[in-house]
Amino acid sequence: MGAPGSGEVGVLATLERVLREVLYLSPAASTYAQRIDRLHFLIILTTLVAATGIFAAAGYFIVRYRRRPGVETTPRFTPRPWMESLIIGVPLSFFLLCFYLGFRDFVWLHNPPKDALDVYVTGKQWMWKFSYPGGPNEVNVLTVPQGKPVRLLLTSRDVIHSFYVPDFRMKQDALPGRYTSLWFEAISAGSYQVLCAEFCGVQHSMMRARLDVLKPEEFDTWLAEHRRGLQARQDGSGGLALPPMAEQGRLLTVKFECLRCHTVDGTAHIGPTFLDLYRRQEKLTSGDSVMADEAYLTESMMDPLAKVVAGFNPVMPSYLGQLSGPEAGAIVEYIKSLRSDQQQPIPAQGPTYAPSGQ
Amino acid sequence: MPPAASEPASPVTYLNATRGVRAWLLTRDHKRIALLFMALVTLNFLLGGLFAMTLRVKLLFPGPFMIEPITYNRIFTLHGVIMVWLFMIPAIPTIFGNFMLPLMLGAKDLAFPRLNLLSFYIYAIGSLVTLWGMVQGGADTGWTFYTPYSTTTPTQIVPVLMGVFIVGFSTILTGLNFIVTTHTLRAPGMKWMRMPLFVWGIYATSVIQVLATPVLGLVLLLVAFEHAFGWGLFDPAVGGDPLLFQHLFWFYSHPAVYIMVLPSFAVMSEVVCAYAHKNIFNYKAIAYSSLGIAFVGFFTWGHHMFVSGLSTFDSGVFGVLSMLVGIFTAIKVFNWVGTFYKGSIDFRAPVVYVLGLLFYLVFGGMTGIAVATTSLDVHWNDTYFIVAHFHFIMVGVTIMAFLMGLHYWYPKMFGRLYPERAALVASVVIAFGFVATFLPQFLLGNGGMLRRYYSYPEKYQALHVLSTAGASLLFLGLATVLTYLVVSLRWGERAAHNPWGSKGFEWLSATPPPPSNYEELPRFTGEPHDYSTTEPQAVTEPGAPS
Amino acid sequence: MSEEASGHLAEQFTTLEKQAHASRLGMWVFICTEILLFGGLFVSYAYYRAMFPEEFREASRHLKTWIGTLNTFVLLTSSFTVAMSLHFARTTRGRGAAGLLALSIGLALLFLAFKGYEYSQDFAEGLFPGRLVREPALRNPGGGIFLGLYYMMTGLHAIHVTIGIGVLAVMGVLASRGAFSAHYDTPLELGAMYWHLVDAIWIFLWPLLYLL
To answer: What's the alpha-carbon Rg for chain C, to the nearest Å?
Structure first.
């Protein structure tokens, strides 16, 4: 929360603190939480006022117009048009206002900033696995920098899970066989609880993880240290040219014979080349164009004929059911690493993004 | 029918016209079938309630307590399955709808009496299969049966799915019967715009039942088939898409919410008019808003899927449509409150339930707007906030309407009065117990407590204890009602013909009604719920079919 | 209303016309539910066909198109004989109506026999649904889903045919006893409507599964 600048802001901040206390809402720990908590208060307070008001109005009428002996008939009352328009107009305006305010933030939530740090998240019964594109892999502890956008790319290895951080007010289902994403920016350093929100079996309620938010410099140190450990291990085993996920992806493209149709040197073959494919604008046979981001690349593996790049025949088979979620993610990471402008694959600070025209 | 019914001196009612177990179990009289349903639905309600209490007791402690996690999962699944499919969906249509619809329309029975009996036995068989599945090991998926968990669970999900599938047929046949009855068996003078509001509500419900239930039936079949043979329609490991299941499931189950609440609204409209002794504020608004809910309700299912991978655009469309469906409910609420204005209100137990229903409906409905707000749903989805929201709007409203209908129509159905003072006390206990149970759950949801959690972080314990205390109160109140209603069956004071002075059309027949409802068909000459005049609402015409 | 017909009038109806109208309305509502039941399957079919067009085409080629086509003719013919029997019943030729219904039942049994033969051939070739499929050309996700849908759709339809046989049999017995006349033919009419529905569903299944 921002520091109170003037007295008025101070009053507002106090009011917010009281409301949070009463509504059992933890302090907003992400920028998203800060955005939506005001709307939360607005709706809940309106709910309380409306429910109590209508209850009270009915109660008042019941006392005021209680049955008295000798009353045989009651007058027929015909509502006037202005009453009816009020009855419909006032709540409808409020409902649509809620929709507008809510959807604005919802759209914001679904458009991650370009410089977000990517972390791959895999749910399985009953744990969370977090993989950074340049390493390392962690189980049940997600470490992120404070004040920097982080994008999670979620998938599941078995049933549906849902990644939920109550203090951040955000969750997203992790589905087997495809990727969904979620981004956030943590406000202050500390540890937060991660829960699984979608029922996934006996140990569902114990599928918890910890989200550690570190100061940016601490995070860089943490990442470097963990990568160094990784590098040491890799050097010991002869050294790998690529970071683990991209390397795994390269092996998978061999295993699934992707390279029979796609080249990695920039020449078009039966399918488009993988080189510089990531975040390239591709023209489609339908006339539209699409940005080859994680979602498109994954979709093209699972449902290749949905969006075929212009100039190629719709011949690619679907790999749905053959490629697991993490495998598809690894191939995406491999494609990301294939860039003509840099000989060294994947810089340590994460992937760079082309402007998306936002 | 026995000609004895026409002798004015002997009070032959549907209750004493014929005797013996066979006469009841093979009856085609809609009123007796309603009572058969009442017995079975109440049993299922008790069972579901016992499961709920077990859950609440376990949740007194954050760690393992009393039952194992797998048992807990089975119990919340059965609690949901029983309460949704065996109590809330059938309760009001099969009991009050069955009993009152022909009376209100001036008909001697439903259009298809034998089908009606069949519907009861299908319901009974479906209940038994579900219970058998429970004994066999039960399902642990939650009542939503989300794939791919439901297709891979080691528990006995197939019998439970089959039980719900069978009950679906009962729902369809009942809905079909009501639709045809409303179209073809309205007595002379009963124009569409003269139908009691209860009939409008039940009619709208039936339309949803008939159109939505087959899709549910199919989807349950698919899940059972997939669980048995692993063909992979919803399993991504074989190429299927789990989200297709959610689309198909919610295509039924969101309208199902309206299958549960529309009959409650129908009862509410009758009871409000009867006890306020007042014309409904705006008849057409209530009638058309029921149809509006039935229609728009079919296009809002996606709001259950805001965080499951739906595209942003789709979420927006479903978000707006969900806001529109809320307005129909708001119209009804204002109309009911408006009806009290300048009425002559008889304060009895049903009026307490009316107040309770108003509060739960507005609170539950407004929190519905809250969770349909896309950005906020990202926080609330799958938390106790959702649990509390749908308990307010579905369970609270249904229980209030069920109880107010039960008290209002008790003399009509059994010819006896219930003890008013005990009823008032119990109604206040129930209304308060309900709030005490579920208000803390809203707060728990705000704090991040998730549904279907066996263990939970310790910080939530205090609110859980409060909720359990409220549930005990609720249970106590319901047990009291059950007790005095059963006792009154035999020892209750004999009721006058129309003890509440109601102008509902069902009171035009004798109390309790004779086997074929009306000796001579009435011709309706007045409006329903018309308290502005003392003119009769109908005249009987000796044997003159139109 | 005639004496002979008034015996069929239930207590809650005032006229036979009203009762017949109610029965027809009920049947139409029932047909709506049936359409929605199969509608869920058609939606699933469309969804997955869009996802796996190649696999669906390939899997479809493995089905016995000639049996499917033959069965289409069998079922269409039975629909015609049922319609004819209704015409006979209305002109008080109960024997003829019963004979035509018996013929229709024979055709329905023939349909099921063909279907059963087709299933046995499918099984012999290893055309099982989902994960169980043994035919190598279809050991891909789309192929398994197609076969699952194939068994689900034709199986559900076959159940409807079986129920239809029962319905037609009851109608046949009633017709042979001369229960129907120009004044009273509602049960037979409803039975015929049901049978046409079963037929109509097959008319959609046949191209979707065998031809496309």
So the answer is: 20
- Ramachandran angles phi, psi of B503, nearest 5°: -105, 20
> In C, residues 39-78, which contact B (CB 8 Å cutoff)?
39-41, 43-44, 47-48, 51-52
For residue range B1-58, list pLDDT tens digits in order. Answer: 344 444 444 588 999 888 889 999 999 999 999 999 999 999 999 999 999 999 999 9
Q: Give me the helix-helix angle, A31-64 and A7-23, nearest 10°.
A: 70
Report the SS3 class of residue A161: strand
Q: Which residues contact C46 (CB under 8 A, 6 or more apart)?
A: none
How far apart, in whole angstroms, are the C-alpha atoms of residue B16 and residue B30?
15
Q: What is the number of residues in chain C?
A: 212
CB A88 within 8 A of CB B331: yes
A17 touches chain B (CB under 8 A): no
What is the C-alpha separation between B411 and B429, in angstroms, rounded? 23
CB of A16 less than 8 A from some CB of B: no
Backbone angles phi, psi at A343, to 5 degrees: -75, -35
* CB-closest option in B107, B179, B229 to C130: B229
HEC profile of chain C: CCHHHHCCCCCCCCCHHHHHHHHHHHHHHHHHHHHHHHHHHHHHHHHHHHHCHHHHHHHHHCCCHHHHHHHHHHHHHHHHHHHHHHHHHHCCCHHHHHHHHHHHHHHHHHHHHHHHHHHHHHHHCCCCCHHHCCCHHHCCHHHHHHHHHHHHHHHHHHHHHHHHHHHHHHHHHHHHCCCCCCCCCHHHHHHHHHHHHHHHHHHHHHHHHHHC
In sequence order, the β-bridge partners of residue A170 are: A165
Residues of A in contact with C141 (CB under 8 A): 318, 320-322
Q: Residue B114 burial by CB count (10 A; 0-12/13-18/19+): exposed, middle or buried?
A: exposed
* Of B40, B43, B176, the residue nearest B114 (C-alpha): B176
Q: Which two tokens stand for residue A111?
A: 């458009």
Torsion of CA C86, B175, B194, A81, to 10 degrees: -130
CA distance C88 to C98: 9
DSSP B237-272: GGT--HHHHHHHHHHHHHHHHHHHHHHHHHHHHHHH
- Whether residue A292 contacts residue A280, with contact meaning beta carbons closer than 8 Å, is answered with yes
* Nearest-CB residue to B107 (from C12, C26, C132): C12
DSSP-derived secondary structure for B475-503: HHHHHHHHHHHHHHHHHSPBP-SSTT---
User: Hey, CA dihedral for C183, C184, C190, C195, is it positive or negative?
Assistant: negative
Instruction: Please give the DSSP secondary-structure letter assigned to residue B67.
Output: B
Give phi and psi for A214, each to the nearest 5.
Answer: -110, 155
SS3 B438: helix
Query: What is the value of pTM for the model shown?
Result: 0.85
Instruction: Using alpha carbons, select from C154, C150, C151, C147 the residue that is nearest to residue C201.
Output: C154
Q: Which residues of C touch B115 (CB under 8 A)?
A: 26
What is the secondary structure of A306-338 as a DSSP string?
SSPBTTS-S-PPP-BTTB-HHHHHHHHHHHHH-
ipTM for the assembly: 0.89
Q: Cα separation of B285 and B287, whole Å?
A: 6
- Quick: pLDDT tens for B151-210: 888 888 888 999 999 999 999 999 999 999 999 999 989 999 999 999 999 999 999 999
List residues in chain A touching C: CB distance below 8 A. Answer: 303, 305-306, 317-318, 320-322
> How far apart (Å, rounded) are the C-alpha atoms in residues C13 and C118?
48
CA distance B335 to A72: 22
Residues of chain A found within 8 Å of residue B351, distances taken between Cβ atoms: 62
Residue matched to tokens 């914001």: A108
- Structure confidence at residue B544 (pLDDT): 44
